[in-house]
Design brief:
This protein is of the alpha/beta class. It folds into two domains: 174 residues, P-loop containing nucleotide triphosphate hydrolases (Rossmann fold), CATH 3.40.50; 114 residues, no CATH class. Helix content is 39%, strand content 19%. It is built from ten helices and nine strands. The strands form two sheets. It has a five-stranded parallel beta sheet, sandwiched between helices. α2 links the parallel β2 and β3. The N terminus is likely disordered.
Amino acid sequence: MTQDLRLEERPAAPAVEFVILTGLSGAGRSETAKVLEDLGYFVIDNLPPSLIGRVAELAVTGREQGRVALVVDARGGAFAADTSELYAALELLRSKSISLRVLFLEASDEVLVRRFEQTRRRHPVGGERVVESIATERSLLRELRATADLVIDTSDLNVHELRDKVLAAFAGEERGMLVTVASFGFKYGLPLDADMVIDVRFLPNPHWVPELRPHTGLEPPVRDYVLGIDETKLFMDRLRDLLDVALPGYVREGKQYLTIAIGCTGGRHRSVVLAEELGAWLASHDFRVHVSHRDVERG
Protein backbone atom coordinates (compact mmCIF):
# COMPACT_ATOMS: atom_id res chain seq x y z
CA MET A 1 0.00 0.00 0.00
CA THR A 2 2.64 2.51 0.99
CA GLN A 3 4.36 2.11 -2.37
CA ASP A 4 1.59 4.27 -3.89
CA LEU A 5 2.40 7.21 -1.62
CA ARG A 6 4.92 8.88 -3.91
CA LEU A 7 6.06 12.35 -3.01
CA GLU A 8 5.47 13.71 -6.50
CA GLU A 9 1.78 12.82 -6.28
CA ARG A 10 1.19 15.10 -3.33
CA PRO A 11 -0.20 18.63 -3.77
CA ALA A 12 2.05 21.65 -4.07
CA ALA A 13 2.68 23.70 -0.96
CA PRO A 14 0.36 26.66 -0.23
CA ALA A 15 1.76 30.13 -0.79
CA VAL A 16 1.93 30.88 2.93
CA GLU A 17 3.42 28.59 5.57
CA PHE A 18 2.75 29.22 9.23
CA VAL A 19 4.40 27.50 12.17
CA ILE A 20 3.01 28.03 15.65
CA LEU A 21 5.91 27.38 18.02
CA THR A 22 4.69 26.68 21.53
CA GLY A 23 5.18 24.35 24.46
CA LEU A 24 6.41 24.31 28.02
CA SER A 25 8.56 27.14 29.32
CA GLY A 26 12.17 25.99 29.45
CA ALA A 27 11.71 23.32 26.78
CA GLY A 28 13.79 25.12 24.14
CA ARG A 29 11.57 27.58 22.28
CA SER A 30 14.32 30.19 21.92
CA GLU A 31 16.78 27.77 20.33
CA THR A 32 14.07 26.37 18.05
CA ALA A 33 13.08 29.86 16.94
CA LYS A 34 16.68 30.51 15.91
CA VAL A 35 16.69 27.39 13.74
CA LEU A 36 13.45 28.40 12.03
CA GLU A 37 14.88 31.86 11.43
CA ASP A 38 17.93 30.26 9.80
CA LEU A 39 15.55 28.31 7.55
CA GLY A 40 14.03 31.53 6.24
CA TYR A 41 11.01 31.88 8.49
CA PHE A 42 10.00 35.34 9.65
CA VAL A 43 9.88 34.72 13.41
CA ILE A 44 7.62 36.77 15.67
CA ASP A 45 8.22 36.15 19.36
CA ASN A 46 5.73 36.59 22.21
CA LEU A 47 2.77 37.36 19.96
CA PRO A 48 -0.61 37.79 21.70
CA PRO A 49 -3.31 35.50 20.22
CA SER A 50 -5.45 38.50 19.32
CA LEU A 51 -2.87 39.55 16.72
CA ILE A 52 -2.47 36.18 14.98
CA GLY A 53 -5.35 36.85 12.59
CA ARG A 54 -3.90 40.23 11.60
CA VAL A 55 -0.49 38.69 10.87
CA ALA A 56 -2.21 36.03 8.74
CA GLU A 57 -4.04 38.68 6.71
CA LEU A 58 -0.80 40.52 5.99
CA ALA A 59 0.93 37.30 4.94
CA VAL A 60 -1.91 36.14 2.66
CA THR A 61 -2.24 39.51 0.91
CA GLY A 62 1.52 39.83 0.38
CA ARG A 63 2.94 39.49 -3.10
CA GLU A 64 5.62 36.96 -2.26
CA GLN A 65 5.44 33.52 -0.68
CA GLY A 66 5.77 33.75 3.07
CA ARG A 67 7.12 31.53 5.82
CA VAL A 68 6.07 32.77 9.23
CA ALA A 69 6.80 31.31 12.66
CA LEU A 70 4.85 32.62 15.63
CA VAL A 71 6.16 31.95 19.13
CA VAL A 72 3.11 31.75 21.37
CA ASP A 73 3.61 31.21 25.10
CA ALA A 74 2.57 32.24 28.58
CA ARG A 75 4.28 35.63 28.27
CA GLY A 76 1.69 36.76 25.72
CA GLY A 77 -1.26 35.80 27.90
CA ALA A 78 -2.18 32.95 25.55
CA PHE A 79 -2.44 30.42 28.34
CA ALA A 80 -4.56 32.31 30.78
CA ALA A 81 -7.64 30.64 32.22
CA ASP A 82 -9.54 31.27 28.98
CA THR A 83 -7.63 29.96 25.95
CA SER A 84 -10.55 30.32 23.55
CA GLU A 85 -8.93 33.30 21.81
CA LEU A 86 -5.87 31.23 20.91
CA TYR A 87 -7.90 28.31 19.54
CA ALA A 88 -10.13 30.69 17.58
CA ALA A 89 -7.02 32.23 15.99
CA LEU A 90 -5.73 28.78 15.00
CA GLU A 91 -9.08 27.90 13.42
CA LEU A 92 -8.93 31.15 11.46
CA LEU A 93 -5.54 30.18 10.06
CA ARG A 94 -6.81 26.74 9.08
CA SER A 95 -9.73 28.30 7.20
CA LYS A 96 -7.38 30.21 4.89
CA SER A 97 -5.02 28.98 2.16
CA ILE A 98 -2.29 28.59 4.75
CA SER A 99 -0.15 25.59 5.60
CA LEU A 100 -0.41 25.56 9.39
CA ARG A 101 1.80 23.42 11.61
CA VAL A 102 1.81 23.51 15.39
CA LEU A 103 5.17 22.56 16.92
CA PHE A 104 5.00 21.74 20.63
CA LEU A 105 8.14 21.45 22.75
CA GLU A 106 7.95 19.09 25.70
CA ALA A 107 10.29 18.07 28.53
CA SER A 108 10.06 16.18 31.78
CA ASP A 109 9.30 18.01 35.02
CA GLU A 110 12.69 17.05 36.44
CA VAL A 111 14.56 18.52 33.48
CA LEU A 112 12.47 21.71 33.45
CA VAL A 113 13.04 22.30 37.17
CA ARG A 114 16.78 21.82 36.71
CA ARG A 115 16.87 24.26 33.78
CA PHE A 116 15.04 26.96 35.75
CA GLU A 117 17.33 26.43 38.73
CA GLN A 118 20.40 26.79 36.51
CA THR A 119 19.20 29.99 34.83
CA ARG A 120 17.54 31.39 37.97
CA ARG A 121 14.72 32.68 35.83
CA ARG A 122 11.21 33.14 37.19
CA HIS A 123 8.63 30.83 35.60
CA PRO A 124 6.24 32.99 33.50
CA VAL A 125 3.13 31.27 34.86
CA GLY A 126 4.03 32.36 38.39
CA GLY A 127 3.47 30.39 41.55
CA GLU A 128 5.44 29.91 44.73
CA ARG A 129 7.37 26.88 43.48
CA VAL A 130 8.70 26.10 40.01
CA VAL A 131 7.28 22.59 40.07
CA GLU A 132 3.79 24.00 40.76
CA SER A 133 4.13 26.49 37.90
CA ILE A 134 5.17 23.70 35.53
CA ALA A 135 2.16 21.61 36.57
CA THR A 136 -0.18 24.55 35.98
CA GLU A 137 1.29 25.31 32.57
CA ARG A 138 1.19 21.63 31.57
CA SER A 139 -2.50 21.50 32.48
CA LEU A 140 -3.29 24.65 30.49
CA LEU A 141 -1.45 23.29 27.46
CA ARG A 142 -2.95 19.80 27.51
CA GLU A 143 -5.44 20.41 24.69
CA LEU A 144 -2.95 22.28 22.53
CA ARG A 145 -0.40 19.49 22.92
CA ALA A 146 -3.01 16.89 21.97
CA THR A 147 -3.75 18.69 18.69
CA ALA A 148 -0.15 19.62 17.80
CA ASP A 149 1.25 18.41 14.49
CA LEU A 150 4.67 17.70 15.95
CA VAL A 151 5.78 17.19 19.56
CA ILE A 152 9.51 17.21 20.33
CA ASP A 153 10.71 15.96 23.69
CA THR A 154 13.85 17.96 24.52
CA SER A 155 14.56 16.27 27.87
CA ASP A 156 17.63 14.41 26.60
CA LEU A 157 18.61 16.72 23.73
CA ASN A 158 21.50 19.13 23.65
CA VAL A 159 21.36 22.26 21.49
CA HIS A 160 22.85 20.51 18.46
CA GLU A 161 20.51 17.51 18.69
CA LEU A 162 17.49 19.81 18.98
CA ARG A 163 18.67 21.71 15.92
CA ASP A 164 19.00 18.45 13.97
CA LYS A 165 15.44 17.44 14.87
CA VAL A 166 14.00 20.79 13.81
CA LEU A 167 15.98 20.77 10.57
CA ALA A 168 14.76 17.26 9.78
CA ALA A 169 11.16 18.42 10.23
CA PHE A 170 11.27 21.78 8.44
CA ALA A 171 14.26 21.96 6.09
CA GLY A 172 13.94 21.46 2.35
CA GLU A 173 11.04 21.69 -0.02
CA GLU A 174 9.87 18.10 0.28
CA ARG A 175 6.22 17.57 1.13
CA GLY A 176 4.54 14.67 2.82
CA MET A 177 4.61 13.06 6.22
CA LEU A 178 7.91 12.90 8.08
CA VAL A 179 8.29 9.66 10.02
CA THR A 180 10.74 9.73 12.91
CA VAL A 181 11.87 6.31 14.10
CA ALA A 182 13.46 6.55 17.54
CA SER A 183 15.07 3.78 19.57
CA PHE A 184 15.04 4.05 23.37
CA GLY A 185 15.55 2.09 26.58
CA PHE A 186 12.55 1.45 28.81
CA LYS A 187 14.72 1.71 31.92
CA TYR A 188 15.32 5.38 31.08
CA GLY A 189 11.63 6.16 30.59
CA LEU A 190 9.20 6.42 27.69
CA PRO A 191 9.76 9.16 25.07
CA LEU A 192 7.24 11.92 25.68
CA ASP A 193 6.80 12.66 21.97
CA ALA A 194 6.00 9.14 20.68
CA ASP A 195 2.86 8.52 18.62
CA MET A 196 3.41 4.76 18.51
CA VAL A 197 5.45 2.73 21.01
CA ILE A 198 6.80 -0.66 19.94
CA ASP A 199 8.14 -2.93 22.69
CA VAL A 200 10.79 -5.43 21.50
CA ARG A 201 11.93 -6.67 24.90
CA PHE A 202 10.52 -10.11 24.04
CA LEU A 203 13.45 -10.72 21.67
CA PRO A 204 16.66 -12.40 22.95
CA ASN A 205 18.92 -9.73 24.44
CA PRO A 206 22.47 -9.38 23.02
CA HIS A 207 23.44 -7.88 26.37
CA TRP A 208 23.66 -11.44 27.73
CA VAL A 209 26.03 -12.54 24.98
CA PRO A 210 29.51 -11.60 26.31
CA GLU A 211 31.10 -10.91 22.94
CA LEU A 212 28.17 -8.67 21.88
CA ARG A 213 27.62 -6.73 25.09
CA PRO A 214 30.25 -3.99 24.38
CA HIS A 215 28.83 -3.33 20.91
CA THR A 216 25.66 -1.47 19.87
CA GLY A 217 22.94 -2.12 17.35
CA LEU A 218 24.77 0.11 14.89
CA GLU A 219 27.53 -2.48 14.55
CA PRO A 220 27.35 -5.58 12.28
CA PRO A 221 27.81 -8.28 14.96
CA VAL A 222 24.76 -7.11 16.92
CA ARG A 223 22.75 -6.37 13.79
CA ASP A 224 23.40 -9.84 12.37
CA TYR A 225 22.53 -11.47 15.69
CA VAL A 226 19.19 -9.65 16.12
CA LEU A 227 18.10 -9.99 12.49
CA GLY A 228 19.04 -13.67 12.46
CA ILE A 229 16.45 -14.54 15.09
CA ASP A 230 13.30 -16.16 13.67
CA GLU A 231 11.06 -14.12 15.99
CA THR A 232 12.63 -10.92 14.66
CA LYS A 233 11.83 -11.82 11.07
CA LEU A 234 8.22 -12.69 11.94
CA PHE A 235 7.79 -9.58 14.05
CA MET A 236 9.15 -7.24 11.37
CA ASP A 237 6.84 -8.81 8.78
CA ARG A 238 3.85 -8.17 11.05
CA LEU A 239 5.02 -4.64 11.87
CA ARG A 240 5.32 -3.81 8.17
CA ASP A 241 1.83 -5.24 7.61
CA LEU A 242 0.51 -2.97 10.37
CA LEU A 243 2.19 0.10 8.90
CA ASP A 244 0.93 -0.80 5.44
CA VAL A 245 -2.54 -0.17 6.87
CA ALA A 246 -1.79 2.68 9.28
CA LEU A 247 0.50 4.94 7.23
CA PRO A 248 -1.89 5.57 4.31
CA GLY A 249 -4.57 6.36 6.89
CA TYR A 250 -2.36 8.92 8.61
CA VAL A 251 -1.57 10.50 5.23
CA ARG A 252 -5.26 10.70 4.30
CA GLU A 253 -5.99 12.38 7.63
CA GLY A 254 -3.36 15.00 6.84
CA LYS A 255 -0.88 14.04 9.57
CA GLN A 256 2.46 15.63 8.75
CA TYR A 257 4.63 14.08 11.47
CA LEU A 258 4.65 10.62 13.00
CA THR A 259 7.06 9.38 15.67
CA ILE A 260 7.47 5.62 16.07
CA ALA A 261 9.43 4.74 19.22
CA ILE A 262 10.99 1.28 19.42
CA GLY A 263 12.11 0.27 22.88
CA CYS A 264 14.19 -2.47 24.45
CA THR A 265 15.58 -2.63 27.98
CA GLY A 266 18.62 -0.38 27.64
CA GLY A 267 18.17 1.15 24.19
CA ARG A 268 21.56 -0.05 22.89
CA HIS A 269 20.96 -3.29 20.97
CA ARG A 270 17.60 -4.64 19.82
CA SER A 271 15.72 -1.37 19.48
CA VAL A 272 18.61 0.25 17.61
CA VAL A 273 18.78 -2.58 15.05
CA LEU A 274 15.04 -2.56 14.41
CA ALA A 275 14.84 1.24 14.24
CA GLU A 276 17.52 1.23 11.53
CA GLU A 277 15.73 -1.55 9.66
CA LEU A 278 12.36 0.17 9.85
CA GLY A 279 13.84 3.49 8.80
CA ALA A 280 15.40 1.92 5.70
CA TRP A 281 12.09 0.26 4.80
CA LEU A 282 10.18 3.53 5.14
CA ALA A 283 12.76 5.38 3.03
CA SER A 284 12.39 2.75 0.30
CA HIS A 285 8.67 3.62 0.21
CA ASP A 286 9.39 7.32 -0.38
CA PHE A 287 8.63 8.58 3.12
CA ARG A 288 10.78 11.28 4.62
CA VAL A 289 12.52 9.52 7.48
CA HIS A 290 14.57 10.62 10.47
CA VAL A 291 16.15 7.89 12.63
CA SER A 292 17.46 8.69 16.10
CA HIS A 293 18.83 6.63 19.00
CA ARG A 294 18.16 8.27 22.35
CA ASP A 295 20.00 5.89 24.65
CA VAL A 296 22.54 4.13 22.46
CA GLU A 297 25.48 5.79 24.20
CA ARG A 298 24.31 5.04 27.71
CA GLY A 299 25.85 2.23 29.72
